[in-house]
Design a protein that fits this description.
The chain is α/β, with parallel strands linked by helices and 739 residues long. It has three domains: 231 residues, no CATH class; 270 residues, no CATH class; 176 residues, 2-Layer Sandwich (Heat Shock Protein 90), CATH 3.30.565.10. It is built from 22 helices and 22 strands. Strands 4-3-2-11-1-10 form a six-stranded parallel β-sheet. Strands 17-19-20-22-21 form a five-stranded mixed β-sheet. A three-stranded antiparallel β-sheet has the order 6-7-8. Helix 16 crosses helix 17, helix 17 packs across helix 19 and helix 19 runs antiparallel to helix 22. The two termini are 65 Å apart. InterPro entries: CHASE2 (IPR007890), HATPase_C_sf (IPR036890), HATPase_dom (IPR003594), His_kinase_dom (IPR005467), HisK_dim/P_dom (IPR003661), HisK_dim/P_sf (IPR036097), Sig_transdc_His_kin-like_C (IPR004358).
Length: 739
């Protein structure tokens, strides 16, 4: 950002006509840069949140919530008075029962229309499909069609996968006295839009529009075309619904539609039953100069739809008859033109997006401004601001709706929540960065001292641990040695005694071949011949075991030699042998692999001045790591595959003499090589680092090789290095100076 402003400053300075102009430009750019740096949290969060919410909105995910919020505003709005210009004759279940058929006959329909005509209505709308004759009385009904110029029938012209086209009533269709009763249903099954013209380019209007237009024509008001092509009655323009109006996203905007402004829930118009009209049980002037609509109301006829009022807060959803949908559309046109009642208006998409951005900006600005107060107060302020802002959005949207404006509610509320979360997180992250920066400065000042202390501590702990362990092992070995020596000495005597006893019994058997029945039975019971044969073998086996214990004891004492204050002469081969003996249990074959072969290629090493305990620790670490590496390389291999290419650890020792500028240096070299997988260059570079390990959790600490290098290089003045390639195993090389 600083680079951008610097570049802009240079560009503006070039275009300035004088040095004074350049200074003014520089000052302005400097202020912009300063303010952008000061409010960078707001500049990051507000556009980001607005873009996110608008993106989600354009994908249609918020549309169902916004439509539900629109329905709630309809239900919360005060109920409007009944439009007395309309009378609806609803065909109820009792009417169908009375006629004993559906549809009822043309004769009964003709009688109904004649009854209505007696009251001199302004318009009669027949919201029933009568494209086919229903005898008796079809000729009589046709005569009524001919003699009733203010009668309008219906037809269905929009065809879809559920419904097909239905023609108009005869004669009415020829006279042009029909309208469409097609409706548009939203994806949630609710009718929120009214259809003025069902199909583009088709002049056939809907029943609601044709009845309203005829009514207005008798008032001397004719439809006109507005400059933008919209329908205009007098000073009222009905702009067509577009696919993204309000909170709709890619809605079906076919034909010419408007958003319905319902007067209230179902039965918001004057209803009378068909039987009451036929039997004259209505006032004589009920229909005079009014629009009379005839339509189905009975639930069995399934001509009803869900509206914003259907799903109440606690009531069971109630559907509105289709004839009332047409009445609502006609009433909306008439009340807008004659009474000044507002329709439902929407903002342009850009204004709706700005509305969302402003609320997100409000939260982001105040949230960033308050960033330096304590965390608890900041949280309380932000929650209070979020609550007040949400309530404000609700109140503004509701009041606007009372004046006919449908503005988004859920989108700005989501922007408020997202902006609150975003700016709060950004503030806390900024605080953490500041604290982290201060902490890094403090830590940097302590790093060198800490490293030295850590290395000294590790060395001290390891030295103390090895010293303690060495004393313990040496003590155990010493304690084992005494009873083992006692057992070994007595075994020699026991071997002679056993042999004497065997010889004596055999001699006795020669001279007394028949010792008696009781002795023979006892000899057979104890299997005297097997005992005499096996007893010397048992003594020999015990002798082998004692010898093995003596060897282990010697190896333990050799490995655990306590280090003195100064170096002592030491036979490195003995240390290697004792280490191998201690690790022999890990070298033996198991269920998944055969023995790991130890190949010794010892050279002629002299006695080396060193710290034996520490050097043994290094050798132990390297051989143990080699065993681990071989076990890892065996994963995925069968026993036979491993047996064909056996695991090997090759231990080589030699003396190397080098001459550098007349200075002769003699070193003892110990090389420990395995034929495992080897290491990559990345691992090889880190292998001696403190706490670095390639082993799984609980299998390695990352200290062994780090301490080993420290012992070899710092304590003994030598060198510990590693050579390895993937697939060719690894070789560790110890170089110890021979003084």
């Amino acid at each position: 950002m600083k680079f951008f402003y610097t570049k802009l400053l240079k560009h503006l300075e070039k275009g300035a006509s004088s040095s004074v102009g350049a200074r003014k430009v520089s000052k302005i750019v400097g202020k912009i840069a300063k303010n952008s740096q000061k409010w960078h949290g707001t500049l990051v969060i507000a556009p980001g949140v607005a873009g996110l919410i608008i993106g989600i909105r354009l994908l249609g995910f918020i549309q169902p919530l916004e439509l539900a919020a629109l329905d709630i505003r309809f239900r919360l709005r005060p109920a409007e008075p009944v439009d007395k210009r309309f009378v609806i004759i609803g065909i109820e279940e009792s009417d169908i029962t009375r006629f004993q058929q559906w549809p009822f006959s043309d004769k009964d329909l003709a009688r109904l229309i004649n009854k209505i005509k007696e009251q001199q209505p302004r318009i009669i709308g027949l919201d029933l499909y009568r494209n086919l004759p229903v005898e008796p009385g079809h000729a009589e009904l046709l005569e009524v069609y001919k003699t009733t110029p203010n009668l309008y029938g219906i037809q269905k012209i929009v065809e879809n996968g559920f419904n097909s086209k239905i023609g108009p009533p005869p004669i009415l269709g020829e006279k042009g006295q029909t309208g469409s009763n097609d409706v548009t249903v939203d994806i949630d099954g609710v009718v929120r839009r009214g259809v003025l013209f069902p199909e583009p380019g088709n002049p056939l209007p809907s029943l609601g529009l044709v009845t309203a237009g005829t009514y207005l024509e008798k008032e001397g008001i004719k439809p006109e075309a507005a400059p933008d092509g919209s329908i205009k009655f007098k000073n009222t323009v009905f702009r067509p619904f577009e696919a993204s109006d309000g909170s709709y996203i890619n809605a079906d905007a076919g034909g010419y539609q408007i958003i319905l402004n319902y007067r209230g829930q179902a039965k918001s118009f004057n209803y009378v039953s068909l039987i009451d009209v036929l039997e004259g049980r209505i006032p004589n002037d009920l229909m005079r100069d009014r629009i009379v609509l005839i339509g189905a109301k009975a639930a069995s006829l399934n001509d009803a739809f869900y509206t914003p009022y259907s799903r109440g807060f606690s009531s069971t959803p109630e559907r509105t008859p289709g004839v009332e949908i047409q009445a609502t559309l006609a009433s909306q046109v008439l009340s807008s033109v004659l009474d000044g009642r507002p329709s439902i208006y929407v903002w342009h998409d850009s204004l709706e997006h700005l509305w969302i951005f402003v609320w997100g900006l409000l939260i982001a600005t105040l949230g960033w401004k308050w960033r330096n107060i304590t965390a608890l107060h900041y949280l309380l302020r932000m929650l209070t601001l979020l609550l007040l802002s949400t309530v404000s959005v609700g109140i503004i949207s509701y009041v606007s709706f009372l004046f006919g404006w449908w503005i988004p509610v859920l989108s700005p509320v989501l922007a408020l929540i997202a902006s609150t979360t975003g700016i709060s997180s950004y503030v806390y992250i900024s605080r953490l960065r500041e604290l982290n920066s201060e902490l890094e400065k403090t830590v940097k000042n302590l790093e060198d001292a800490m490293d030295e202390l850590q290395q000294s501590q590790i060395q001290l702990i390891q030295s103390e641990k090895m010293s303690t362990l060495g004393q313990l092992v040496a003590g155990v070995a010493h304690e084992i040695n005494n009873p083992v020596g006692f057992i070994s000495g007595n075994l020699k005597c026991l071997e002679g005694y056993v042999q004497d006893l065997v010889n004596h019994i055999q001699l006795y058997h020669q001279h007394f071949p028949e010792p008696g029945e009781e002795i023979e039975e006892d000899a057979e019971t104890i299997d005297i011949e097997y005992v005499l044969e096996d007893m010397p073998k048992m003594v020999a086996s015990m002798h082998v075991g004692v010898t093995r214990i003596k060897e282990i004891s010697i190896s333990l004492r050799t490995f655990s030699r306590s280090d003195t204050a100064s170096k002592v002469a030491y036979n490195i081969h003995e240390g290697i042998d004792s280490t191998i003996l201690i690790l022999k249990h890990r070298l033996k074959a198991n269920s998944v692999r055969p023995d790991i072969q130890i190949i010794k290629e010892y050279g002629k090493l002299p006695m080396v001045n060193c710290y034996p305990g520490q050097l043994n620790q290094v050798i132990m670490n390297l051989i143990a790591n080699a065993i681990d590496a071989l076990d890892d390389s065996n994963e995925g291999k069968t026993f036979t595959e491993i047996e064909n290419n056996p695991n090997k650890i090759i231990i080589t020792t030699e003396v190397v003499t080098t001459v550098v500028t007349t200075v002769v240096t003699t070193q003892a070299i110990i090389k420990i090589k395995d034929n495992g997988r080897g290491m990559s260059d990345e691992v090889k570079q880190k292998v001696f680092e403190h706490l670095f390990t390639t082993k799984g959790v609980g299998k390695g600490t990352g200290l062994g090789l780090s301490i080993s290098r420290q012992i070899v290089e710092e304590t003994h003045g030598g060198k510990l290095s590693c050579a390895s390639e993937p697939g060719n195993g690894a070789e560790f090389r110890i170089e110890i100076p021979i003084s």
